[in-house]
Every structure is written in structure tokens, then in C-alpha cells.
Amino acid sequence: MKGSQSHEFETDVPASELWEVYGTLRVGELVPELLPHIFAKAELASGDGDVGTIWRLTFAPGIPGLETYTEKLTKVDNENYIKEAESIDGDIMKLGFLYYMVRCEIIGKGLTSSVIRSTIEYEIDDGHPELEAMVSTAILAAVAESLSGYIKMEKMAHSSS
Question: Which Pfam families does UniProt cross-reference here (predicted)?
């Protein structure tokens, strides 16, 4: 059984400024710093942020069923601000997902605002329909909101100094 879920977060940060974080290795540095209650750490296993880069994520204690997650970047589109990462190891795959992919798209809405669209596409074995209830964009929504807030705070700090 295949499925998908999406979340959109509208922000008053320009798409190009969001991509300076989302489209680089900086995203992996910031996520555990900004969301320590969700991510204990993000380790760059290999790569430079382009296709083929592998991240190992460790979730904070208390996230049911998830301790580790390893993803490989399969698409990095710097013109259209799209990044896709497929799960290649860790608890999501051990739970029984056959395929699990996260896509982040930064969509410009004029010069000063944008939408962060986060999508999860997945496939599960028909014998495990309970896995569908585990799919949630809540973590991606938290990432979008926190990164947007961080960029706005950095911008304010630089403009006042």
C-alpha cells in the first residue's frame, strides 16, 4: 500500500534565504540545536550536501518506535528549491516500511515570503496496515517553523548590529 502526507508552512522569509539553510549541510547542524526535544543529533555520514549525501539522525528519547534514521539525498534541485531524501536504514525500515521518502520544497510567494511544503511518500506491506497510522508530518512541520524562526532572528540580529 502506497500513500503520502503533506504539510505547508507559510512564512515571511524569502525562498532564497530558506534555501541557504535547507539546501546546505547547515540544516543538519541546526535541526538538533533548534529541536533537541526531537533530535538528539544529526551526523553527516558522507557527502557534501548534494545527491548521495548520507545523514544519520538520532531521535531524542521518548519518540515512540524511533531511535535512529539514516537517509540518503536522492534529489537536490538548487534552481527549484527541492530536496528529497530516502530512508535507507534505521527504525523506520525495521518497522516494516518498504519505502519512505521525505521531500522539502521551498515555494516563493513574491519577493518576501514563501511556503515550505514538506511531503512524506511511503509504501508499506499490505500485511502491516497499522504502519500507516505512524506516518506524520508533525516533525517536518516543527522543522519548518523552527528554521524559519531561526532565519528571521538571524536576519534581525544582523540588521541591528
Answer: Bet_v_1
How do residues 16-59 score in pLDDT, each as one tens digit?
Answer: 999 999 999 999 999 999 999 999 999 999 999 999 999 999 99
Distance CA 81, CA 141 (A): 17
Domains and CATH numbers, the chain: 2-160 (3.30.530.20)
Considering the entire predicted model, what is its pTM?
0.93
3-state secondary structure of 63: coil
CB atoms within 10 A of CB 45: 13
75 is catalytic: no
pLDDT for 77-88, tens place per residue? 999 999 999 999
Nearest CA to 38 among 13, 61, 65, 64? Answer: 61
Report yes or no: 59 and 42 within 8 Å, Cβ to Cβ: no
Bridge partners, 54 (sequence order): 46, 72
* From 2, 75, 83, 155, the catalytic residue: 83
